[in-house]
Amino acid sequence: MRVTQAKLPTKLQSKLQSPLHSTPSRSTGRLPLLAGAVCVALAMAGCATKTTLGEKSSEVKDAGVTLDANKGAQTTTITQLQKFMWFFSPYRPDIQQGNFVSEEMLAQLKVGMTRDQVRFIFGTALLEDPFHGSRWDYPFRMAKGNGELTTSRVIVFFNKEGRVERWEGGNLPTEKEYIARIAGPAPQSKQDAKSDQ
Hints:
The chain has helices at 10-16, 26-29, 31-45, 58-63, 80-85, 103-108, 115-122, 175-183, 190-196; strands spanning 74-76, 95-98, 127-128, 135-143, 149-158, 164-168. By secondary structure, it is α+β, with helices and mostly antiparallel strands.
């Protein structure tokens, strides 16, 4: 016995045809164009950056800020427009690099201290230049997720006997200011509020 397929009228055939085999309509022809436009818009919005340690604000790029130990801690903030546009960018964590040296730690440093004493106060130097063995660098960089950038540098110079001769750096934040910069200002207790009045 042989089975043959019944012929249906063309109007009925087009209605029963699957959507995968149908001819594209005008609206589905625009879908790849729309998807391409969305991809270009996302790429232009800054989903990928070319900087090594996070995105820098235009103020930092234009100003050409160099890290000078004599200036102490330097903080660069972002503009109001950049704060608004930050809402549309992906999450960026706070990145801390280097050795944080506070004002209290720098106050403990005295001329004539040994290398071990300096290492005890500041920690191991991030940069010990093999060509300048009498110099230890303590750079610090904190890039907050909102675009704020804080940098500082302390340089300790030793004499031939391995004792502190001099240092560069100052105007550093205190430990309380540093913690407030990371976690936000500390809430005031009721006793502190009464003593302020």
